[in-house]
Amino acid sequence: MPVMAGIDGKARFLETLQIAMERRQPVAIYADEDDFQSYEVGYVEYVDSQEVMLQCLTPKGEPDGRRAIHTDDISRIDTDNAYTRRLDLLFQYKESIFDKEFRPLPKGVRPDLRTQLENARESSTIVHVVDSNDYGPTGFVERVGEDFVELKRVGSNGEPDGMATVLTSSIHKVHFGRRQEQVLEFLYRYNHDLKKLLDS
User: Is the pTM of this model over 0.85?
Assistant: First the structure.
């Protein structure tokens, strides 16, 4: 790859940030010298040779205040990758992603685990099943057996991710409809169901 004449890293960072600001595209900025894996994602609101003001986003695409960053502290900028595109999409649809109230159960039904799992299957609600180490699959309930649960797994960007069968005896807890599961439901339907509809 040819070297860009007359431009150093800081100038290239400024150029990248200015383009992102003009296009209203989120960026991931690495500017913590003590933690090379730490970064902030958001929209560039202002940038000059001294500082950048970032409108930050949570991992669920929600507004998370502003952060001022010294441009001299920046060591890396990521643009237009799967994660920043995901947060941009979630931010755009933030008003329609999350439930405003608890999802109702059918009347007269006791809210025990099996019933909740069956209800999640019928209502196509994503659940997160975990063991005593707080580890386990996330996905749509496909089947509730006598001593097992089968899930159609959903990956971190809402993509289908195979199947998982879990013994009921190994389940420590199950999460139903938290915000992070609602995010995955939205991403799945946006990227998978909508694509199938457009292709049909």
Answer: no
